[in-house]
Design brief:
The chain has three helices and twelve strands. By secondary structure, it is an alpha+beta fold.
Length: 188
């Protein structure tokens, strides 16, 4: 074998090794991205005004999925969830995500009277809402493993007042960080 043939074989072997390494790295990156998005965090887009003034249409968020595997959602958390059964009966697909604030947790009572929201008989001080809700809601108790959700734009939000309680298993994760637009980057 001539030295030119040996150099050509070494070059082809080196090119194949480099290509193989790159393919392995790309595969690992894709698997990691899939695992992170599936189990840890994912980006989400805000499509409506239902969470004004906290979130605006077009905001892009990071939704963290891991903490609710170990802890329950709490009052005030902003969560992303799959539509509950009532919304699915009304034509929303299961993969169409919603975002709302947790107002009541299992066992709590909720009542809305004269534009004021009462949690367990106590008036909520809600400095995060756009305006007080116009619709009254008789006293309701939240069942086990379910949550009462409301948008911050109380008079323009399709929430628990209209479709009932949210089953825990429908919760995807907690909104924790806004990464778009650049002038509003920060934690939520």
């Amino acid at each position: 074998m001539s030295s030119q043939e040996t150099d050509a074989n070494k070059g082809a072997s080196s090119a194949w090794r480099s290509l193989r390494e790159n393919l392995i790295l790309i595969t690992i990156a894709l698997v990691l991205a899939f695992l992170i998005r599936t189990f840890i965090a994912e980006p989400r887009y805000i499509p409506s005004d239902s969470m004004l003034p906290t979130l605006e249409t077009g905001d892009r968020l990071v939704v963290e999925k891991l903490s609710y595997k170990f802890n329950l959602p709490s009052f005030g958390d902003i969560v992303v969830f799959q539509p509950p059964p009532e919304l699915q009966r009304r034509g929303y697909s299961q993969d169409q995500a919603f975002i709302k604030r947790v107002i009541g947790t299992p066992g709590d009572t909720i009542k809305i009277d004269q534009g004021k929201v009462y949690l367990n008989g106590n008036l909520l001080q809600e400095d995060y809402i756009k305006e007080p809700p116009l619709q009254p809601l008789p006293l309701v108790q939240i069942p086990q493993n379910q949550y009462f959700m409301m948008g911050d734009n109380r008079n323009d939000s399709n929430d628990s007042r209209y479709w009932g309680f949210l089953p825990k298993q429908n919760i995807i994760g907690k909104a924790i960080f806004r990464f778009w637009p650049p002038d509003r980057i920060g934690t939520i």
